[in-house]
Amino acid sequence: MNKLLSPNPHAIGQPEGSTVQADAVPPGFVNGTPKSLLADMEAIVGTDNVHGRLSDLVRFAADASPYRCIPKVVVSPRNGADLAALMRYCRSHGRHMTFRAAGTSLNGQAMSNDILVDVKTHFTGMEVRDNGAKIWSRPGVVLGDAQAVLGRYGYMIGPDPGSTSVCTIGGVLADNAGGMRCSLPRDSYHCIEDMTFVLPSGTIVDTAAGDAVFHKQEPQLHAQLADFRDRLRANKPVVELLKTKFSIRNTNGLRLDAFLDEDEPVHILKRLMIGSEGIFGVIIESVLRTVPLPKVRATTWVELPNLRDAANIVHPIMEAGAQACELLVSDVMRRSADHYSHAPESWRDLDPAAAALLVEIGGSDEDDLQMAMQRLRDTLSDAPLLRPLEFETSEEGMRGAWLLRNGLFGLLGASRPQGSAYITEDVCFPPDQIGEAAADLMELQAKYHFPEAVMGHAAFGNLHFFLTPRLDQEDEKRAYAAFLDELAVLVIDKYKGSMKAEHGTGVNMAPFVLREWGEEIYSMFWEVKNMIDPEGILAPGVKLSRDSLIHLQNFKSFPKVEEEINPCVECGFCEPVCPSRHATVTPRQRIVLRREMARQPEGSHVLAKLQKEYQYDAIDMCAADGTCSIPCPISIDTGAVMKQLRARSNSVPAEKLALSTAQRWKAVEALARAGVISANRVDSKILQVGANLARNVVSPDLLPTVPGPLPQGAGHLPKTPREGAEAVYFPACINRIFGRPAGSPPDAVDLPRAIVELGRRSGKPVWIPEDVAGDCCGTPWSSKGYTEGFAYQAKKIVEDFYTWSDGGRLPIVVDAASCTHGLLDSVYKVLDAQTLGKWEKLRIIDVVEWLRDDVIDYLPIVENMGSIAVHPTCSTEHMGITEALVALANACGHATVPEGAGCCGTAGDRGLLHPELVESATREERASLGAGNFDYYVSDNRTCEMGLEMIAGHTFESIAVLLERASRPVITP
């Protein structure tokens, strides 16, 4: 039954301007996975690991590629035994399966119209070995996480693709991914030491166990591999061609050179698995040799008048010791200047012919780095540079340069015409011919009216470019096909290059494998495929296909959706930071599902079912904190759209109640404080039962759970004089309701008293207005889409701030980061012109900024607080004060930001409404906290601290409370 005040999921409707699409999910999928298949899968992997609802099938159907297939079912196997059972099931039932990890594949290699197998969820875990020289990992480990851990030892994994922050090690191995610094000796094929994988037969092979064990496990396959090895080695022309083709980057085909580089069949198979895109089996463990990191680094932009000049100096730059050399052309640079703050300002007015190289150099120490800089200056002394070299050595500056480079995939895709596809091509040429090849590429792009945007890993001859055809229109589909045919002539015939360098073959290049390798080697590819997967159960159509038109099928449409999310290219960069990623859906999936609603005809049963499931999965479970906009290359804030949809689905009675609550917030605040004080005297189990009953009757999105243990009720605010105050202090309403954490020591002070005392000790006194009760930043209303209640509180607080601050003369210090961020980023959007003018005169600062800028230098630290875990909030990230938060903690002791720390999912009161959101958001951070041994736990937002205590079991406090304790004068008898 519908609960009182519950939202109407169908009120979200369809996106304005959407049109029915030919690839809309058909009505037959409305009930999700067929019951018999669902039961079979549940018997193999367990009920909780089968995803068979309509929404599940749709959200997993999309990845970063331009293709889409709707799977019959999605499963998350728990271990190798589950995978082996799935393999045997497919063989006995005539079904097929495809593997997917992060969903960053660009060529359709991770899509399935049958069983899609998630090899990320349960396949995490890594171990650094040999003091960093090696790393053992499972396939679901995010590459960026592994790189961060290895970095502490002075090492890195060789491949470093632009998707490092989201792609997994399993995907890197399956695609033999490259990247900016990944020379051939550093790629996965050359750095793999051992692996464990599951074959289509269901056999689990551990290469570390040796060839004799493999021979016992798979005697027929062992013999076939040995026989093929001998025949291939005897074919000298084939041997020479393999050596030539793999002397540059090439992922368009299979690594038959494994039969040349290894003798034993088990290790031949190990190398064959690299770059095989899941057509031979699935890797479940791997041991990789790593490469040393330079101790110090620097980056510089080398800007030149034209592409030819840029290309001609790539080889000399690499000879001078550069570790990376990335090419950008003028069009790409101009677009970057409009979006990235780290882009040179001069790029806005570049000549259309200009080009640039992003160069990175490294050294063993500062002197070594200075010599490397001088070598580069000497190398480029006669080059026609558009501006002098400027070396960047700060971490922030270098990070900014690489963020720009890595974000170009999303940035360029965002400006594509409405409804067009977004296809990333990835070719490789002999590095010494990259200038001529790039010019030819741009000429070909111009011929077919595609964007003339070329970029790539110039050091390795690897270029990327982007195509934006309307593949729902036959004439443009034919033009795309003709373009690829001409591209093959250019790459294969003229330059003897590779049609795919590092992104894998997928289905996108499967028809061109024969074209690139010739009939003899192509038949060898099929022979190896058939000996390993004789029933063809793995990834049909991927890598090898006899369908010459497979690359022109199953394109996904891009119907119009809400303006804020419409530019999304579904790259998935947002997913690792999304609080709900382990519970329901991610930002990319929210957009994917919304696009499917846009494809559907009005009145569709599929549409109605999607809307119903979307309410909880996407809307209710969104923290709406904008965290997803930070890693997004084009800063898409999916949470902003979820707020809009909340407003649309809110019932009229709920909207009226929200406005009434805002108007009576002073009374509500007093009641809430009294309720907390009373609740601390009642058994927590009784409270939880009562709260859950009320949530079942009214709405779980309006009434919170009762997390235990509750903090103490807030005491009365300290009295402070206005005269002589250097700042107004606004205690957020959450800190006026909740006091010290439960079980606090007797000498602990609450946050308002800590801040007042810190101001006094540092000679920077603050004043708390007497009439502060009843004022709120408005986030409790804005986050739920209650526009009228939010507008009321926004106007009230700005008017009061203006009065308290003497027309903006005094700064206003806010003691909760989410409130500070809301006051700076959201409040102004709903103000009338007169009130907006007052807001613009205010200087609102977070307590972290105040402590950093006005207090810490005047505050004697008298006690070392030991080891301190610091939880940065999403708001500290948005406001750019996370480093300040960590620095303040370091002033008190030794600060550590736990691995996996990000948005905790509390999001004001949302984590109290949906504790499962906090549990999802903090999974990795909780593991890191559990492995550490910390004396104190600090943050900068009370609800985040409460949520973390509720889920992680550690008492988190404000950094200001810790500073008060660390600077408390020692009283001697």
Main sheet attributes: strand count, strand direction, barrel closure: 6 strands, antiparallel
Structural class: alpha/beta
Q: How many β strands by DSSP? A: 25
Mean pLDDT: 93
Helix content: 40-55%
Per DSSP, what share of the residues sits in E-state strands of 2 or more residues?
5-15%
The CATH architecture category of the largest domain equals 2-Layer Sandwich
Question: In DSSP terms, counting alpha (H) and pi (I) runs of 4 or more, how many helices?
Answer: 41
Kindly, what is the distance between the CA atoms of the first and last residues, rounded to a whole number of angstroms?
68 Å
In spatial order, strands of the major sheet run 12-14-13-16-17-15
List the domain count as a whole number: 4
CATH third-tier fold name of the largest domain = Uridine Diphospho-n-acetylenolpyruvylglucosamine Reductase, domain 3
Taken from the alpha-carbon principal axes, the silhouette is globular
Residue stretches low in confidence (pLDDT < 50, at least 5 long) are 689-699
CATH hierarchy class name of the largest domain: Alpha Beta
Task: Report the radius of gyration as a whole number of Å.
Answer: 30 Å
